[in-house]
Design goal:
The protein has one domain: Cathepsin D, subunit A, domain 1. About 30% of the residues are buried. It is mainly beta and about 160 residues long. A hairpin with a 2-residue loop joins strand 7 and strand 8. It is about 5% helix and about 55% strand. The chain has one helix and 14 strands.
Length: about 160
């Protein structure tokens, strides 16, 4: 068993960690990572490419429209996402630059250690330190996949019309 520990920010009452000198909220109810950083930051740091435009994504704040970008080599501690597809809303609705979705950690046990004030990710094998989180369009739906395993539908193409 391999455990990755990332310190939680002490001043925030929500589970927030620092990644790339920016705040990242860990949202256990989210199904796709959402980034509100600039496209320039994504291009310069992660060789980002736009996969889909005008994608509607729903959440507690309602429906937002934006683009799906594919990033290369985004790291969460020692965990490397060699491919990470993220939603970038047209209008910023978050107080955080990154929203890390529960689906990113599919197959791992993870949680918040209050005593040590950290976010812990437990994985059964060090070979899993590199993974892919992708968005696919299957007929009329957008779906998330982790390491090729289809997880969840999160938007319909019909909503784009």
């Amino acid at each position: 068993m391999l455990t990755i520990r990332i310190p939680l920010l002490e001043f925030d009452k929500r589970p927030v960690v620092k990644l790339y000198n920016m705040d990242a909220l860990i949202d256990t109810g989210a199904y796709i990572p959402t980034f509100t950083t600039s496209a320039t930051f994504l291009l310069n740091n992660f060789q980002a490419k736009v996969l889909f435009e005008k994608v509607p994504v729903g959440g507690i704040g309602g429906i937002a429209q934006g683009k799906i970008y594919r990033l290369q080599n985004f790291r969460v501690g020692r965990l490397n996402f060699e491919c990470l597809d993220v939603f970038v809303p047209d209008k910023k609705r978050l107080d955080y630059e990154f929203l890390l979705s529960a689906t990113m950690f599919y197959g791992f046990s993870y949680g918040f250690n209050a005593e040590n004030k950290c976010f812990e990710i437990n994985m059964p094998d060090a070979a899993l330190l590199s993974r892919k989180f992708e968005v696919a369009r299957l007929k009329e739906r957008f779906c998330s996949k982790v390491d090729g395993l289809l997880l969840q539908t999160f938007a319909t193409v019909a909503a784009l019309r």
